[in-house]
Known about the structure:
Helix content is 41%, strand content 16%.
Amino acid sequence: MKIAVDFPSVAYREGHKKVLELAEAIEAIGYDEIAAFDHVVMGYPSETRTTIYPAEMPVLEAFMLLANLAAVTKTISLSTEVLVLPQRQPVLVAKQISTLDTLSNGRVRLGVGVGWQDSEYDALEEDFHTRGKRMDEAIDLLRAYWAGGQISFQGNFYKSNDMGMEPVSPQGINLPIWIGGVGKAAVRRTAQKGNGWMASGVSDEQALTTVANIREQAEQFGRDPSDIGTQLMLQPPPRRKEDKYFYADLDQVSERAAIVNAMNFDWISVNATAVFQSGARSVDAMIEQLGTIYARLSNEIPLE
């Protein structure tokens, strides 16, 4: 099993050097990946708008964050968990991810999802209601550009005529795309197009059922189900007061990781923002607690 750390944007409050220091420490501790959360803007609540996160929540832009972290790390992989792909221009995303992969020497994994915040789509002037169809097309377009050479693509939403995008990154067309979401379309999309499934905020029963459905549909698409990886966040971002202390209780963290390991997931992710909320209220405190968590997990579950 591998472990990703969802990077805490709140680290910015202590300045740029501490952000980079945290990334270096996560790599030195032994974690396998640093993942960036993605929202460009957050909507304030209103009578017609439902929100999940407060608009004042700090979120560093995912690609800019990962580019900075790539410069001070050497081997740890870098990912998005997950990028709201349909609210961005996919050719530009293809270039940004390819450049990140090139400058990090092939360390990138792209996690994508359709998102939930219609006001964010409005602010970015993209159509919320066609996001699923555009997601499918955008994934194909990314891979077309990552393959290199002379690129022509004719979709219902995106078109490219005899274009080139150089350099081809170390992973090229094989750069992994993992899919987030639990709806029917996300299951089908993972089975048909994804290198893996990133899960968060689901029950264990729902997670196992979704994995089974993905594997069944993968066979229908002529794919080997074993080629599709799986990842589960140890605990979703806490919304109840009692959930905020999960990462302060090492017994609870260890027990949860053992359960996910028994479910045969390939990856787990540790939410460092939740580590901050659990009482590690500085970068130094988060580094210490992340180190303690890793040491405990390495004694409890098999790590690669």
